[in-house]
Structure formats: structure tokens, C-alpha cells
Amino acid sequence: MGAPRGAPTFRYGAILLSALLLWAYIHAMQYIIIWSGNIPDEVIWYRVREAGVWGIIFWTLIVLQFIVPFFAMLSSGVRNQRLPLLGIAGLTLGLRYVEALVLAAPGTDVDVPILLLSFPPAVLAVGGIWVLGFLVLLRKVQSSVWDTEPLPDAFDPAGTPVLRRPAVS
After folding, report:
1. Residue 64 contacts by C-beta under 8 Å, 6 or more apart in sequence?
2. Looking at the whole model, is its pTM more than 0.70?
3. CA distance 65 to 96
């Protein structure tokens, strides 16, 4: 069962694959620019994240955020089915939070446990604000959908809208 003829088909797998490639490209280009420019301050930033436990987390992120999803989505069976795509999208979204932690935590003087404890409430607060804003806008859109008053298509000399009613025959 495919989409009806002439109906648009959406390829979410292709969009997700493109987003993964863009993410990898941006990170790789940043690394290459810093490496080729031999910028000491920036090299230290990478060296801190590649050492010890942070290095293990850093390389695990690279494998789980890019290599595994990329090779999985090369298969059309994964790329065009809902459940595998949802799994890859969920994994990618969850790992973005770990990525934010790896990008921020090693360079700070804050204890990592304190940072780990403050992270979930911050995510919930931002998510709550987003959901609240979404619901307000959704209510506005829903109320405008039920508005059946025709829009004015003419104005009188004073600039007041005039609705033209169809002539009754």
C-alpha cells in the first residue's frame, strides 16, 4: 500500500540521514580547521575531552551518534520504516544531551555531579516552556480554523472593509 497517485511522499529517513551528515560535517570541519591552524588554545580544548573518561565518552558519542546510524540508514529497510527511524531519532536526540555535557563539563571548574544534577531540571524547564508556547500557538491556530467569516475583498473610500455578498438569484 503506497501513497495515492499524485500525493506527496515524505522521506523522513533521508532527512534524518542528511541531518546526521550535516552534524558530522560541522564537527569534522571544526576539528580540521583547528588542527590545520595549530591553535594552541583550541587544541587544549580537544585534548581535555580526549583524555580519560571523557575520551571514552567522546568516542562513544562519535560511534553512537554517527557511525552506527549512518550505516544503519544506508539500508532502505531501515531508512523507510517507522520503528527503526524512531529508534535512531530517539537515540540521536538522547545522545545530544550527552554531547552537550561533554562539550561543556570538562572545561569547567564545576563538579560534574552538580552539573549532572542540574542538567535534567534545566532540560525539563526549557521543554516545559517550549510545550507551553506550542500549546498557546496551537490554540490560536485552532481558533482561526473555525473562523468562517469571509475576509474583506474591497474597501470603501474611508478604508473600512466591505464584504461583498454573492447576489441571490
Report:
1. 91, 95
2. no
3. 8
